[in-house]
Amino acid sequence: MFVVGLTGGIGSGKSTVANLFAVRGVPLVDTDVIAHRITAPHGLAMPHIAAEFGAEFVAADGSLDRARMRTLVFSDETARKRLEAITHPLIRAETEREEREAQGPYVIVVVPLLVESGTWKNRVNRVLTVDCAVDTQIARVMSRNGFSREQVLAIIARQVKREARLAAADDVIVNDNAPLEELEAQVDAHHQAYLSLAKGDAEL
């Protein structure tokens, strides 16, 4: 299966772009969705998280206490790495399973931290970055999540710089408050290119 890795900074509009590909018949594998699933009530990661961090990080319904964990990992780099040591292998296994089961001309894997991970670029055929100005990211996340400007800047600071994300990209979609029809035109152009590449890959 031909695999396109879709990435972009917070507030870049990854989900909007991914959904535009989906309506064109392209299956999506979203690592954020998988991450939430494995930390939901009775999720695959929860017994390991409880054992590693303690019952206080498990909510009453058996899911991850996200607010408590977010506070911890933002202030403690070692804790972040301990959490990732649990979740990343499970996310990878679930991603690979969904890729194998995907039915379509090619598959898009949505990976917010594709560049940061250091391993994802070798697991996809193309890297597609959704790009916008930092000020656009800030405004979108403040509006969407109700975060302060300082909170959004702190999140952006933990992600790879925009320039590095663009340098790692094979393809770029610009989503800087353009009209929807312009965004759809970009998606259509990339979709046609990926159909051709996927066909060629299948014929090898």
Automatic annotation (TrEMBL):
<comment type="similarity">
    <text>Belongs to the CoaE family.</text>
</comment>
<comment type="function">
    <text>Catalyzes the phosphorylation of the 3'-hydroxyl group of dephosphocoenzyme A to form coenzyme A.</text>
</comment>
<dbReference type="GO" id="GO:0004140">
    <property type="term" value="F:dephospho-CoA kinase activity"/>
</dbReference>
<keyword id="KW-0963">Cytoplasm</keyword>
<keyword id="KW-0547">Nucleotide-binding</keyword>
<keyword id="KW-0173">Coenzyme A biosynthesis</keyword>
<keyword id="KW-0418">Kinase</keyword>
<dbReference type="InterPro" id="IPR001977">
    <property type="entry name" value="Depp_CoAkinase"/>
</dbReference>
<dbReference type="Pfam" id="PF01121">
    <property type="entry name" value="CoaE"/>
</dbReference>
<comment type="pathway">
    <text>Cofactor biosynthesis; coenzyme A biosynthesis; CoA from (R)-pantothenate: step 5/5.</text>
</comment>
<dbReference type="InterPro" id="IPR027417">
    <property type="entry name" value="P-loop_NTPase"/>
</dbReference>
<keyword id="KW-0808">Transferase</keyword>
<feature type="binding site">
    <location>
        <begin position="11"/>
        <end position="16"/>
    </location>
    <ligand>
        <name>ATP</name>
    </ligand>
</feature>
<keyword id="KW-0067">ATP-binding</keyword>
<protein>
    <recommendedName>
        <fullName>Dephospho-CoA kinase</fullName>
        <ecNumber>2.7.1.24</ecNumber>
    </recommendedName>
</protein>
